[in-house]
Amino acid sequence: MKKPKSGQYFDMQDGLITMLRMSLIKATGADMADAMTKPFIAVVNSHTDLNPGHMHLHTLAARVKEGVIAAGGLPYEFNVPAPCDGMAEGHEGMRFILPQRELIANIVETHVRSMIFDGIVLIASCDKIIPGMIMAAARLDLPAIMLTGGSNAWQVRHSVGYKGSVDFKDYAGTHLALSTCTAAACGACEVMGTANTFQCLAEAMGLALPGTANIPAFHTDKLIAARETGKRIVAMVDEELTTRKILTPEALMNAVIVDLAIGGSTNSTLHLPAIAHELGFELPLSVFNDLNTKIPTLLSISPNGPHGILDLYMAGGVGGVMKALQEDLNLDCLTVTGKTLKDSVANAEIRDESVIRPKSAPYDAEGGTVILYGNLAPDGAVVKQSAVAPDQRHFIGRARVFNREKDALLAFDARTIQENDVLVIRYEGPKGGPGMPETLAVTMAVAHTGLKRVALVTDGRFSGASEGPCVGHVSPEAAAGGPIAAVQDGDEIEIDIANRTLSLLNVDIAARQKGVTPVQHEVPPGFMRQYVKYVTSAARGAVME
């Protein structure tokens, strides 16, 4: 059994300090004969009691450790933060959510480097935690494997009157509407938000055991998958199968393709480039446009349509999606199995074509995510076209400008938002927010006020659960002097998804910009001041440099 890193603990050339290290290991209750010969496996757990997506992960970690021990390794668990986007919505806490991605990556990296592990199991369910863990794995280049926590089930599935849909629009005006966003179990929210998008993409990139990404959080098979994950990491150490052998540029391109096909969260345009950055190459936003005319949206999972993640699981999971896409994917990419993606796809099934549609009859002819460019977004902006009704994919309206999300919400309370308004919410980017908060509260307000034609343009971002003509990640952001800072009330804005453009009409925007003094929001002392100093544009993944 190989012990490539942790053998340093027992290097007798270090003299008395080796004895000190050994005494500390023994003090944990370790069998020293085992400790000196078996690989040390870090079990990186994001369990927390205050996040339904992660409340069950201590149970999964216990099964992972069983698997590690059974395979001849020694597991050592440590924890990282597990922020819940939903609980941070609507208050200042949301400004600290995206920055925690960097903190999680840093915590995993620094702890693993300091404590010298041979392999890593990463356990997470939700939005910033999965990407942060993968970023750390990319830096460390050790054997690493991801165990996703799985999704929950919405309460509507257990309610009298359930119509086979989990989309609130199918229950509008009834008591069941709220149950379409009420969690009835542990696990990530049952929509194609960022959490489930990255559970899918972890498997698509080859970092999770085939068929495990979409197992529901509450299903017995998730416990079995946890044990198998623990066993597999020990074999990966023995095989010297490290992360960078799996996370190649081709694997990241596979992730983009799958993301487009599943109607994934717009936050993928932040996290995939950030992972690529850690691997030493660029994944420009333009890649999404290069592919979205070739890769159709195959799934109609809420907010894109009536299905939920449980429907995807029963239909064959992300493995089934990749089977439908096998002509487009690079099947030679390695996975944590030690075999190629071709082997994974060969064993996958499509059990329900009404959920995982064939390419010949897709839910939408184009991929879910589109990048818009123009005089309002020279470096790009992002929209989830799969969640925009076809009759709203070309939108011209008058600007209503707000320098904070809360000001837009006050306008809704005052009922001053009107049809054909384009809400421009700025100074909410990575630097200006600070922290690039989600504006889900505004998108929900639009969806639930009965207004039919209202758009949103922001240098902030959205929840993957957002729908409608909502354009985010406008870059450069207002705080960096971007053109969005020059928009005024009443200006005409055109959103043209088909032509990939976002434009301010009939205005010399460059002349306007000369007279703009950027708004400075207060930045609290502590980590956020470091973040604002070093964070890059959303167009580059909002990484810290």
What does this structure look like?
The protein is of the alpha/beta class. The protein folds into two domains: 275 residues, Response regulator (Rossmann fold, 3-Layer(aba) Sandwich), CATH 3.40.50; 171 residues, IlvD/EDD C-terminal domain-like (Glucose Oxidase, domain 1, 3-Layer(bba) Sandwich), CATH 3.50.30. 34% of the residues lie in helices and 13% in strands. The protein has 19 helices and twelve strands. An eight-stranded mixed β-sheet has the order 5-6-10-9-8-7-11-12. Helix 6 runs parallel beside helix 11, helix 7 packs across helix 10 and helix 14 crosses helix 15. The two termini are 38 Å apart. The model has no long low-confidence stretch (mean pLDDT 95).
